[in-house]
Amino acid sequence: MGATKKIIIEPVTRVEGHGKVSILLDENGQVTRARLHIVEFRGFERFIQGRPYWEVPVTVQRLCGICPVSHHLAAAKAMDVIVGADKLTPTAEKMRRLMHYGQTYQSHALHFFHLVSPDLLFGFDADPAIRNIIGVIKKYPELAVQGVMMRKFGQEVIRLTAGKKIHGTGAIPGGINKNLSIPERDFLLKDMDQQIEWSRGALKIAMDYTVEHLEDLSDFGAFDSSHLSLIREDGAMDLYDGGIRMIDSEGNKIIDHFDYQNYSDIIAEEVKDWSYMKFPFIKDMGTENGWYRVGPLSRVNTADFIDTPEAEIARQEFKALTGGKPNNLTMAYHWARMIEVLHAAEKMKELLLDDDLQGEDLVVKGERRSEGVGLIEAPRGTLFHHYKVNEDDQVTMCNLIVSTTSNNVPMNLAVEKVAKKYLSGTEITEGLLNRVEVAIRAYDPCLSCATHALGKMPLTVSVVDHNGQIVDKRST
Amino acid sequence: MCLAVPMKVIELKENGTGVCELENIRYDVDLSLIEATKLDDFVIVHAGFAIEKLDVAEANERLKLFIDLAEAYSAEDNG
């Protein structure tokens, strides 16, 4: 490390307060690697031990407020296994699915319209004073309104499926605690076609942007990688359930339809001394080659098809760009994310027209087990919840692998690629800073915004010169 | 994993933004995604946007959980 000097970019604005990036240079001033330091809150596993298992789906959604529904449902799915509910009633499963598509829809809309669209509409080099949502509201007022309305619709879906907005208590071990009444259904259905129309528009923006800027984007934080997601039995994209599929950068299936109850047989997590966040990898492939990407890009890459008509056409257009091979561009995440927005909208309509949602049979139970795993495709990627429960109903073990953790290596690599291309000398130009942000933002990392707020999470910023000496250091 | 600690709105500005605070940590926050925000409301903040308003009971319930969690973190940190 003696010959390596560091440049610290901090904070990575709009990706929460805790992202800190170090770009490491050798003594010739060339970029050797980049590191995104994410302050990870250790202690959750210890915190959850001793709590009753049925409380966990509610507790996790209270803590994980950025994507509460995903954690809620992943925990509930693990607890389904604990209570022996191997097959939910149609009403319970479809209510959960509706809730999940509502969450995906609002999360993707928030990310695309409020965080990403300024970069796409104004360009990476635009003045940050303009390149923000206020700038979008001024120049593209209709678009800004659509973003707000799409997010609001997703929130309404969550409210009506969960009972309360965002932090509902809809899913319980073995099922759901409410169905959807006819008035609730009609309330949502009346806006559904408008939502689908807006989704088409958002998809078009993302697709046109990618195609028009393909030459630049092909060299922007792009790299070959494996992709992992859940997949339905017939190979369809499924955001709620399925087996694990992983493909390599060429599209060859490395893992397929793997029962996620046994995920720990194939996936391990590496700890590195410079990051609190773990690095998951496929055991057989080792830490060097076993990492993978998750999220919208990976899901569109792994799926054989999408089971809603318009999103399937969009998927085919997406795949046509790369001749049927996986798309490995970091910036293609946005296009893939908007394919999922359209898919979620189509799925919500399909579900709202299904009278199973008005069924009365809400909960099933079976033979009690002591261990359960729940996986779900959260907006940001595959989310793992794993629990062990004792005879007194207390949780004795918990392990979570969150989507942003799986994208840890990929985000570091994306930043490294950008740094190698855009860093000139040792000066962090605004252009470089913007591009590092843009690359990280493509992954929509859910870094927590205030984990240090209780005084337990100091944030330290260091600048280290080529001799390894810290020349500047600041703590929050 | 990422966490979302409730923050209190301590200042409202004319342009739809405001200042949120928790234990002396302050952020400028865009409040345009939630409706009818008042001073002393509790909100969840993501990427500079308030994404959810909480009632006082729910906010207190969560803060209690976060205090427990902070204790677990300290225990972990001290081995």
Structure overview:
The complex is a heterodimer of chains A (476) and B (79). Chain A has 476 residues and is α+β, with helices and mostly antiparallel strands. Chain A is built from 16 helices and 15 strands. Chain B has 79 residues and is an alpha+beta fold. Chain B has a single domain (7-77), classed as SH3 type barrels, CATH 2.30.30.140. Chain B is elongated, with a radius of gyration of 14 Å.
**CATH-derived architecture of chain B:** Roll
The helix content of chain A is 40-55%
Give the strand line-up of the largest sheet of chain B: 3-2-1-4-5
Structural class of chain A comes to alpha+beta
- Determine the mean pLDDT of chain A: 86
Q: What is the subunit organization of this protein?
A: heterodimer
Distance between the termini of chain B: 20 Å
Write the layout of secondary structure elements.
The complex is a heterodimer of chains A (476) and B (79).
Chain A: E1 5-9, E2 20-25, E3 31-37, H1 44-48, H2 56-63, H3 68-82, H4 90-122, H5 133-139, H6 141-162, E4 171-172, E5 175-176, H7 182-212, H8 214-217, E6 227-231, E7 243-247, E8 253-258, H9 263-266, E9 267-272, E10 275-282, H10 286-289, H11 296-302, H12 309-320, H13 332-352, E11 371-378, E12 381-389, E13 395-401, H14 403-406, H15 408-422, H16 430-441, E14 460-464, E15 470-475
Antiparallel strand pairs in A: 1-2, 2-3, 4-5, 6-7, 7-8, 9-10, 11-12, 12-13, 14-15
Chain B: E1 7-12, E2 17-22, E3 25-30, E4 42-46, E5 49-54, H1 56-77
